[in-house]
From TrEMBL:
Annotated InterPro entries: Glyco_trans_9, LPS_LOS_Heptosyltrfase
One of the Pfam families matching this protein, by short name: Glyco_transf_9
Tree of life domain: Bacteria
Protein name as annotated: Glycosyltransferase family 9 protein
Record's keyword terms, sorted: Glycosyltransferase, Transferase
Length: 244
């Protein structure tokens, strides 16, 4: 609790040029914006004009940018209406080479590789039965031409009972370099999904609980799917499209 209140004290201690609350429904975000000392404060209110103008306005990564551009335009700074930048962790050549070396040691062949991440927190985590069905179909349909490997979470758990070769690391940048060497990464809505969204490899995000419109991965070759509306075969068809 002392650490928590210490953060609020620090907000008052320092003066900022601009403060932006990036989460619309965050009461603590709005309160901290109010407490902070700044000339310009953007509280993250929903702007109906922008909601009508942009179909992806409510996406969590884009909403604050649309709002900021709108407010800056009110201050006389022209909104050039360029596309929202994609996430980019900027894997460097050394990290990419290290990731390839790690992958090569894991699969020991020249086939392309599909990576899966079977973990997520709370209700976002698919059951072992669901992942067993997905893994079986991946092996049946793609196992001849592709390696299927599993990226493990820090909890070191597997929803497929460690049936696939697995990779594990606590180093965010090492993981990013590894993921960028995959030909497709499949994962539920999670921190690992957003990390996968920040590299150049194709990605399929799996959604069954959280709002697809708010959290879906975006950018070239990134897609989110609502698995409640798709059969296993339809999911495999999407895997094929992403690989293509």
């Amino acid at each position: 609790m002392l650490d928590y209140f210490g953060v609020w004290f620090k907000l008052k201690k320092k003066k900022y040029d601009m403060v932006i609350n990036v989460v619309q429904n965050s009461s603590s975000g709005r309160l901290s914006t109010k407490v902070a000392r700044a000339r310009y404060k953007f509280f993250g209110e929903k702007i109906e004009l922008l909601e009508k103008q942009y179909s992806d306005y409510n996406h969590m990564a884009k909403n604050a940018i649309y709002n900021l551009r709108y407010y800056l335009n009110m201050l006389g700074i022209e909104d050039k209406k360029t596309a929202i930048p994609v996430l980019d962790i900027k894997v460097n050549d050394k990290e990419l080479a290290q990731g390839k070396d790690l992958l090569d040691k894991l699969v020991k062949n020249d086939k392309k590789t599909i990576g899966i991440y079977t973990f997520a927190t709370g209700e976002k985590c698919y059951s072992e039965e669901w992942w067993a069905n997905v893994y079986e179909r991946l092996m049946q349909r793609f196992g001849t031409e592709y390696n299927i490997i599993e990226v493990l979470p820090v909890e070191n758990v597997s929803q497929i009972a460690f049936k696939a070769p697995s990779y594990y690391s606590k180093d965010i940048r090492e993981i990013a370099g590894f993921l960028q060497n995959l030909d497709l990464f499949i994962c539920a809505d999670s921190g690992m999904m957003h990390l996968g969204s920040a590299v150049t490899s194709p990605l399929i995000g799996l959604f069954s609980v959280t709002d697809l419109n708010m959290y879906t991965p975006y950018g070239p070759d990134k897609i989110g799917i609502d698995t409640r509306k798709m059969s296993y075969d339809q999911i495999m068809d999407q895997v094929q499209r992403s690989l293509n």
